[in-house]
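Following up on my earlier thread - several people asked me to post the actual chain instead of describing it. Fair enough. Here it is, all 793 residues.
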Amino acid sequence: MRVLCRRLARRPGHAALAVAALALGIGLTGAMFAVLRGTFLRGLPFEDADRIVHVARRPLAEGGVLPAELAAWREAEAGFELLAGFLGTGGVWSGDGAPAERRNGGYASRELFAVAGVAPALGRGFLAEDELPGAPPVVVLSAALWRERYGADPEVLGRSVRIGGSPATVVGVMPPGFQFPLRQEYWLPLEPLLATFGPGVRLPLQVVGRLRQGVPAERAGAALDTVADRVAADAERVQTVVTPFLTAYTAGARRPLWLATAAAVGVLLIACANVANLLLARGLARSGELAVRAALGAGRRRIAGELLAEAAALALFGGAAGLGVAWATIRLYRAAGGLVGSFWVDIRLDLPSLLVVVAATALSALAAGSVPALRASRLGGGRAVEGHRGATGLRLGLLARGLVVAQVALSSALLVGTGLLLESVRRLHAHDLGEDPEAVWVGAVTPGVEGADPARWLRLYDELQARVEAIPGTATAAWASHLPSGRTPPAEVEVEGEEAVAGRGGPSARLAVVGPGYFRALGRPLDRGRDLAATDREGAEPVALVNRAFAERRLGGDAVGRRIRLVGPGEAPGPWTRVVGIAPDLFLDWSYFEDRIGPGRPAGVYVPLAQSPLPGMTLLVRSSRRTGELTPEVRAALAALDPGVPLLRAGTLADSIADATSPYRTVRTLLGASAGIALALAGLGLFGVLACSVGERLRELGIRSALGAQRGDLAGLIARSAGAQVGLGLLAGLGLGWLVSRALEGLLFEVEPWEPRVFLGAALALAAVAGAASFLPVRRAARLDPAAILRGD
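Reply from S.P.:
Thanks for posting it. Predicted structure:
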């Protein structure tokens, strides 16, 4: 071991480079496995978690299952032990001595806790009598909410709390870590909410269930299909889809995370190729020594073993450093927010992740050391005598150049994937998001769905808007259910005069609820017609705005005065609504990692807030003042109207845009980091091979120069060698990049997998790195002194 360390210390730069390359590859691979394991490989922290499933219908009913379908499914014999409905929401907690704050919660069937197989740690869950009409409201707390808001007080049971202004009695506390199904902090009974809103209100549900032992998900789904067909009011064919819970809730993140993991493995392979080439070069430098040792009786196994031991030492140091790289990568991924933010996600360097690092270290040693060891073991003693000085039996040859070609190919593919994601983000930002998003202040206000008092919601919205517009410097203020930076929900829209088509096969528009002045606040005037007005209230004729895309596709461009209506799956159509104006095509569909309505501009419909009140809206304020100064003034105005309603997510529209693009940027960063490292390693690998090639061919180059070859001829000889390696690697890499682009297709935003500019950019980037890597070896070849070389020979 001491001899081995001394040997590595003779050329510390090479050793440090090899260790750094392996550390990056091993560390990234270990970190990405930890991310995969923490996100979905470990599974739910429940007993028999593989039997917990998600149940949905296709086509989706506004993103979920209708209450009537859930009721029918429960009555069917379909292989489920339990089925539970769930509706996520956020509630404002107030009136218990602590500051008002919004907490993430939901409405759940009493079967929800049994589906997970978890009982309350304190108190009880929901009973049948809690779901009866007029039953006293009750709530079950998560352990986190119990600890943070009530100091883990065991006397919390029976305490009255206020959620959204309505009282509820605490009846139970769940065990630590339980926030099923996503990241809930409290649960309210579902049935009273459905009874409050009535059967005609769209309240789409998420449905989770526990399969009976031995019943496959496909069979359970097929049994529910006939039930869904019977419930659906239209003639469309309804398919019931039963999928494992984690598969359903992490579907959008699985592909990008697997791709990022493949990119990390690609970096590891490139690092191994680099170390293999480094060891080949070191073997070339020691070829005379190795040949003499072989002539003196050293066995092939011993010679090969020494090179394998050298590779193992480099891999061992690389693995140790890779732990630090993995730890830092996990920290950065957490800081970026990740792609899945749910209670079961726990990303850390646990024992399985450490074992992956150990396995990657061992495989790296084997991959990097086996090729040079096999090459060196072929030396025979006679070859030492027959060889010329400086050109004995070991040569880099085609194998080393082939490793460079492989590095260039992998780097090209990673560059293509990164470029496609960069282009997606660029096109996202190129959409119309309003004039100067930095100048638009936004903040969410949620009076609360609890209590279902639309008149109270509207009074609060109107009074707060009036107070905010009185703040000096405010140009205009308006309300919106969804910002241009958010995902606007789908809606099926019927046009008067068109033949109704049952089961059109998907939503025909995006639907937003806005108040008067919304487009002025965004700095975008209407194209035609009038804006929504304060007189567009309940009792007046229903009106709406449509965007240019909807007007052109569905109304032939002549939209003002036409009538449309919303059609909910399984429900009677809404009232006929008159189109009074055409709005610009603001961005409506930031649905990352999901299917969109279609390419190009999404069609959009905007209905007035006073005719479609919602229990939560976002206030937009365009002001000449700095947006940071508005937050305390808006918060004070809201507190004066209702101290129990907090101001949430205050910031600028630009901040909301940044949050909306976070998943794209996270994947782009993961792939981009891998591509950058791979590109640098490929450049270093090319430089090393060319430098060794020049050293290996000094005698040949000297003779060529002595026979009249010009400097340009010698430089061209090395440059052509570099060009051949890069060209072959680039051709293979662009083909591999095409496969990567197909894998990325579902993640791209308005970018075709075969985007010429991206592929051209990847080729140019590689050409630039190859040119930089070739510069010094080519320059050395051009400046050779043939007399000095031949004298030395």
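The mean pLDDT is 80. That should answer part of your original question.
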